[in-house]
Amino acid sequence: MDIASLIGVLGALLLIAIATGGRFLQFFDLPAVFIVFGGTFLVVLSKSTMADFRAAYTTAREVLTTKPMPLTDMIDELIAVGRVARYDDRWMITLEDREYKDAFIAKAVRMWVDGIDHALLKDALLREITEMKIRYEQARDFFAYAQELAPGMGMIGTLIGLVIMMGGVNDPRTIGPGMAVALLTTLYGAILANVVIGPLVQKINGHGKRVKRNYEMAMAGVLFIHKGGDPRLLPDLLLGHLPHEDSAPIALPEPKQDKAEAEAPDNA
Predict the structure, then answer these.
(1) pTM for the whole structure
(2) What's the distance, Cα to Cα, between the start and end of the chain in Å?
């Protein structure tokens, strides 16, 4: 679990609980919970397929429980791959049997070892990046809709509570429950949208951008090595071409043909 998310959400709920003056149970109402939390869940489900629903929650769990590989570790991994390909006579077997820290690098290297042409390898990796980007965008949009919907469900609950109050105006015993539903549904909708779902949407968005950056840098590094580039140049080349949001994929310069490359294995 992402410790920052855990501290942030629990801390915010704790501050809200403290603000109640220790009478936290007075702010719990089961009908209001059903209207806001249950209603939000079911309406979001109604606009999605079950596959979209499962994919969004799988992506959210991934965002909260994993971290993208640090850039320095990823570059070290690419350098190690490049050294094997450049200097190891049994480079194909070594790379095939190697344990990789990053699944995208592992997939790219194994496609290379399988003998895929440089252009086809680039196209396959670009498709992988596109699919990853779409997956995170769909999860972000899924929870962003829930964030927009929660205050609306709170307003629906408020109207229901007011109707209950007005319908039982001659019976004082019905005014309290109706007032509780009217006020607490608005509170629950605001908390659900701004304390729980809002930060999750931002987490998914930021995590997806970092993973995309890593994938693009890994693709550029693997393609550079695939064409016989010197792995020692990767730190300067990759860190000098950090992608920005909505920028085109990294394109490293063509490796120079030199004597050392001529003696290297044919990686294409």
Answers:
(1) 0.79
(2) 41
pLDDT in tens, 108-141: 999 988 888 889 999 999 999 999 999 999 999 9
Which is it for the CA torsion 199, 201, 204, 206, positive or negative?
Answer: negative
Contacts of 164 (CB under 8 A, 6+ apart): 174, 177, 178, 181, 182
Number of H helices, E strands in the chain: 12, 0
Q: How far apart are CA 131 and CA 136, in angstroms?
A: 9
Q: What one-character DSSP code corresponds to residue 21? A: T
* Residue 28: how many other CB atoms lie within 10 Å: 11
> Within 10 Å of residue 24's Cβ, how many Cβ atoms?
13
> CA 20 → CA 28, 125, 151, 180, 181, distances in Å?
11, 53, 21, 15, 17
Is there a contact between 132 and 211 (Cβ–Cβ < 8 Å)? yes
Please give the single-letter amino acid code of residue 37: F
- Beta strands (DSSP E) in 69-204 are none
Say if residues 113 and 163 touch (Cβ distance below 8 Å). no
> Would you call 86 helix, strand, or coil by DSSP?
helix
Tokens of 52: 């979209």
**CA dihedral sign of residues 167, 169, 174, 176:** positive
Angle at 197 between CA 195 and CA 203, to 5 degrees: 100
Q: Which amino acid, residue 131?
A: E
